[in-house]
Write a structure and sequence with these properties.
This protein is α+β, with helices and mostly antiparallel strands. It has 5 helices and 12 strands. The radius of gyration is 38 Å and the shape is rod-shaped.
């Protein structure tokens, strides 16, 4: 083989090695995972639950899921027969107190004494009625049908009626013996007390009409018409759509300078567009949250932080539950 041929073979071998190296580099370049890390979050929203202070039965639902309501709109109407009965008892107590006060001012006469006696009899009837109601509620409670709250309400009504009966009896006794100035003042104060009790019952009755306390969207309605709801049980949930934010769980090595006040862009897959957001809260999620162990490599454990951010301006169509992506 001539020297020229040997030279050509060497050149070809070198070129072959170079081609192999280039091919390996190209294959390695495309095989290497160059996908950037993605942080996914979720849109959340403030909400409040509509509930009643007292147990009752749903008589009417004025809204349905998805409706937008304004502050003060009527949402649901409940029936509370026990409170209605207590209102009648309280109004009767006011009539009794008014009449007894008039008797004290007019002085004791035969007709006055007889009238006070009749009022006393009415109070006795009201007491007996509330006593029967309480006994019935006690039996239901013992059988596990009724709640302790209802039993306690019936007991309270019975105690009130019992006290009012005692008042009526003392007024009847006072009418028989004639009223003094001090007694007249007592009767007037009893009138005030009776009127205040009516005010308390009336305020409880206002709970039978549930209204919206803020603008929002009805997300979930729990009971159906005709169902009983217990003390404080939620009737429906209202989303305050104007109060949206995003929540991200970010490992500390991915924070990259994120801090309260930082403005960044998040991609919304539902819209295929980005929204500008501002960090409002940065909180360590604690040792129970997601974390990455790296001590086996001689480094340190990586903790996870909860990052909350709000849109810098209103994003039309942004809804709770939508995904937010940060690259």
């Amino acid at each position: 083989m001539s020297a020229k041929e040997q030279h050509n073979n060497i050149i070809l071998a070198v070129l072959g090695i170079i081609v192999v190296i280039v091919l390996v580099a190209v294959i390695g370049w495309f095989a290497l995972d160059r996908t950037p890390e993605v942080i996914q979050g979720e849109v959340e929203v403030s909400e409040y639950r509509v509930s009643c202070k007292l147990p009752g039965r749903i008589m009417e639902l004025r809204v349905k899921e998805g409706d937008f309501v304004h502050k003060g709109d009527t949402l649901a109407i409940l029936e509370m027969p026990e409170i209605n009965a207590q209102e009648q008892v309280s109004k009767a107590a006011v009539d009794v107190a008014d009449a007894v006060s008039d008797l004290a001012d007019a002085g004791a006469r035969k007709e006055t004494i007889e009238s006070a006696y009749q009022l006393y009899q009415q109070a006795l009837s009201a007491r007996d009625l509330t006593k029967k109601t309480y006994d019935r509620m006690q039996r239901l409670y013992d059988e596990g049908v009724s709640t302790a709250q209802k039993r306690d309400e019936a007991l309270a009504a019975y105690k009130v009626a019992e006290a009012q009966t005692e008042v009526a009896r003392s007024q009847w006794e006072m009418a028989k013996s004639g009223a003094r100035e001090q007694e007249r003042r007592i009767t007037k104060n009893q009138v005030k007390m009776a009127r205040n009790s009516v005010g308390v019952v009336s305020s409880l009755l206002r709970e039978s009409v549930q209204t919206a306390t803020a603008n929002g969207e009805v997300s979930t309605i729990y009971p159906k018409v005709g169902e009983l709801v217990g003390l404080g049980s939620p009737i429906m949930s209202i989303l305050i759509i104007d109060d949206l934010w995003g929540t991200f769980n970010v490992r500390e090595d991915q924070l990259q300078g994120l801090q309260v006040g930082t403005i960044f862009k998040a991609f919304v897959p539902a819209f295929n567009k980005e929204v500008e957001m501002k960090v409002t809260s940065l909180k360590d999620e604690g040792s129970y949250a997601t974390w990455k162990a790296t001590k086996t490599t001689g480094q340190y454990d990586l903790k996870t932080f909860e990052v909350k951010a709000r849109p810098t301006k209103k994003a039309e169509g942004l809804r709770p539950g939508m995904s937010l992506v940060i690259k």
